Automatic annotation (TrEMBL):
Name of the protein in its database record: RRP7A protein
Keywords tagged on the record: Coiled coil
Keyword Plastid among UniProt keywords: no
Domain Ribosomal RNA-processing protein 7 C-terminal: start-end pairs: 91-210
Superkingdom field: Eukaryota
Family classification: Belongs to the RRP7 family.
Amino acid sequence: DSLSRLFSRCGHVQSVDICDKPGPGEKKDKLASKFFDHKTQKGFQVAYVVFRKPAAVQAAKALSQEGPLLISTERHPVKTGISKWIASYEASIVDPKELKAEVDAYMQDYDKKVAEEEAKAAEEEGVPDEEGWVKVTRKGRKPGLPRTEAANLRLLEKEKQKRARKELLNFYAWQHRETKREHIAQLRKKFEEDKQRIALMRAQRKFRPF
């Protein structure tokens, strides 16, 4: 806005493009959304001022003889410091209604584009081209498996194999625990039998530990 105001004395300013470094001068596509893909250039920058008439370029070159051009003046101040931070913070607050309207409009355009592509594919289905080739799509007589569905099937198969391996490992662990439990039970049973045998031998006075 400041550059447009400064150079408007030379002629009608058609556009001002700000870049982070000099380039071929090709005009970049302007952002269609102020919510998404918004990147602010920081630091020293280069600006391309485009006038409607070529004569304004010569007038802009003559401005260098008048002295430096002031972007921030008392009449047109440029916010800096705390006031700039406050303005940046207020600009960062998104209006939910405005955002929803933009998203809805984008989705409507997307759905319309998809419908047009599907209608065009349906019209071209089975129709040979100039060389006699017939284009086969997923909407043909034998539609192929969509890539997303195939990916889901592969993922489910991997999960199934992973679950089977886990169940097998759990089974082995359970079998190991059962074997260990049975071994401990046998040791306890043998210990009780030995205690009873020792008690019986003591009662018969035939116990000789050494």
